[in-house]
């Protein structure tokens, strides 16, 4: 029998960065990455850079009007634009932090329901 998967999702990044996600809105900014990236790179990340919203339909990322931008799978989000995240999506924050969105939701993993 396969081990039980935890529900929810997480962002995985450099130097051990892990942010667990759940229902509701979680905002990310400069302070969240302190200690994981060089201090001089923190200046490129806005204080409130992006948010991820967990809903019953999935997880959505929205740029909060950041100065240096947020990219999902190589595409820059417009200010205020929200897009649905897919499992293993790559998120670039101000071109100084690369994160991977990992979802344990069965439908995101493409596992058929029996």
Give a written overview of the molecule:
With 114 residues, the protein is mainly beta. The protein has a single domain, classed as Tumour Suppressor Smad4, CATH 2.60.200.20. 11% of the residues lie in helices and 39% in strands. The chain contains three helices and ten strands, in the order βββααβββββββα. A six-stranded antiparallel sheet has the order 2-1-10-9-6-7. A hairpin with a 2-residue loop joins strand 6 (70-72) and strand 7. It is globular and about 35 Å long. The two termini are 14 Å apart. The model is unreliable at 1-6 and 106-114 (pLDDT under 50).
List the helices and strands and how they pair.
Layout: E1 9-12, E2 18-21, E3 24-28, H1 30-33, H2 39-42, E4 50-55, E5 58-63, E6 70-72, E7 75-76, E8 82-84, E9 90-93, E10 97-103, H3 106-109
Antiparallel strand pairs: 1-2, 1-10, 3-4, 4-5, 5-8, 6-7, 6-9, 9-10
Widest β-sheet, arrangement of strands: 2-1-10-9-6-7
- Into how many domains do the coordinates divide? 1
The DSSP helix count reads 3
CATH topology: Tumour Suppressor Smad4
Oligomer: single chain
Highest-level CATH class: Mainly Beta
Secondary-structure element pattern, one letter each = EEEHHEEEEEEEH
Keywords:
disordered N terminus, mainly beta, 3 helices, four-stranded antiparallel sheet, 114 residues, Tumour Suppressor Smad4
